[in-house]
Write a structure and sequence with these properties.
Distance between the termini: 23 Å
Structural class: mainly beta
Radius of gyration: 14 Å
Shape: globular
Order of helices and strands: EEHEEE
Strand order of the largest sheet: 2-1-3-4-5
Number of helices: 1
Number of strands: 5
């Protein structure tokens, strides 16, 4: 499964780093930097020659009795079927079933 992501500054990372104990903390810092930016990270997929933009979401969670911001990537609305089938952001269009 492809899960590479390119950030607006050109740095790259993998979506799977979110659950990698050695990389998760740095990955969360990278997502926090991208959150709220006007420029979106993109995956390696292309649709009609254009890169597929991603959205950085922020959730507040309770951890050890305190509130902590946790970040994750999501595909843009109604674009899941436009990602390649091997892409971790791909989702079949339920309207086509």
């Amino acid at each position: 499964m492809r899960d590479w992501v390119t950030f607006p500054d050109g740095t790259r990372g993998r979506r799977s780093w979110d659950v990698d104990p050695l990389r998760a903390r740095a990955w969360q810092r990278r997502l926090a930097q991208a959150w709220g930016s006007d420029e979106r990270p993109v995956c390696d997929c292309r649709h009609q020659g254009q890169p597929m933009g991603l959205s950085v979401h922020r959730c507040l969670r309770q951890r050890d009795g305190r509130q902590v911001a946790v970040y994750h990537l999501a595909r843009l609305r109604n674009q899941g079927a436009l990602h390649g089938v091997a892409c971790s952001f791909h989702e079949a269009d339920p309207r086509c079933d």
